[in-house]
Amino acid sequence: MALRNALLAALADRESSGYDLAKKFRSSVANFWTATPQQLYRELEKMEAEGLLSARLVKQDKRPDKRLFSVTGEGRAALLAFSRRSPKPTTVRDELLVQVEALAHGDVASVRASIVEHREASRSRLKGYEQRLRDILGDRTDDEFLATGNRLGPYLTLQRGISFERENIAWAELALGVLARRYPL
Amino acid sequence: MALRNALLAALADRESSGYDLAKKFRSSVANFWTATPQQLYRELEKMEAEGLLSARLVKQDKRPDKRLFSVTGEGRAALLAFSRRSPKPTTVRDELLVQVEALAHGDVASVRASIVEHREASRSRLKGYEQRLRDILGDRTDDEFLATGNRLGPYLTLQRGISFERENIAWAELALGVLARRYPL
DNA sequence: ATTGCATAGTAAAGAAAGTGACTATGGGCC
DNA sequence: GGCCCATAGTCACTTTCTTTACTATGCAAT
User: Which residues form the Transcription regulator PadR N-terminal domain (chains A, B) (predicted)?
Assistant: First the structure.
């Protein structure tokens, strides 16, 4: 009931295929909503059946045909209605932090390795977000963009993604420092 | 397959009832893992059936009887095995950010109100975490605690919760500032 | 006297999500 | 020629989660 809205939000800007959306969910939407490609394809079918989306088949020469989805009037109405509802509280699922919580009952060396992995993944996502931010800004400063730009929503969610990843990295450094001190190699 | 580990982590420290766990998941574990009471009761049953937990009935005078769960040897082994697995990537579900992403297609006044609500909820959780941190530290400084304390895991996850909520608040301020500028009341 | 809150749970349907395998085309690499 | 990668999906199965609605007890406030 909520993935739909993330899809409507993504499709409201541009017509896309399931494949395009899967990439977008992997690279940027994952910041605030995660979904697997299978989920997307399933949900897109349902939404088309319910009249929120319309689809058109595009034949391609050099690659497989694709279906491009776009938001219908009904879909736009649903998105507007969603924007008026009070959003559910954020939910987080972070297995690494479960491991850290149980540090005293687990394998410290292994958890330490997981923290390092996690930090590297955050660094890599952070780079992607920063690149994307530069793309949105173009040659404008943040301030010029905020005064006149027309992709405020994506700008704001991107900022949240950036600060989240920065905090992930800072936290990982803290945790590794603590572990180095208490559990020397 | 993963909620169990969060439960094992919570129970490894102290024997608890389902009700206790529900409170803990609401107030602190929610930082890195969310679960409803119904999920917990169901999972606890399964885990007891599989031998990861043992339960004992405690009769109470002034309130309903309760069942206290504790981790068995098998449960400890499962937790150790979990700590050695590579954790799945963090997943986030944040409806507010979906609304913000679709700002241009939604009701800005309503989204603004949601951001304010969200900020207040973060402030309140932040206060709770800071209190909990003071409880863990007692009269020690962070540094003394890190040198000798014995609840390092909870300390670290709490730090992550605190920085997360601080960033939520800072982001909300940013977003409200941007909206005030672009969509004056 | 009743309402509301905290404690302590249970039941069961239905929606959503995750997992793994599979089909197909074309391009580039070695 | 064989292999992997990117594109563009589909299918089936299973697990997990959410939602809604229940049962009970005792305390405190109005």
Answer: 7-79
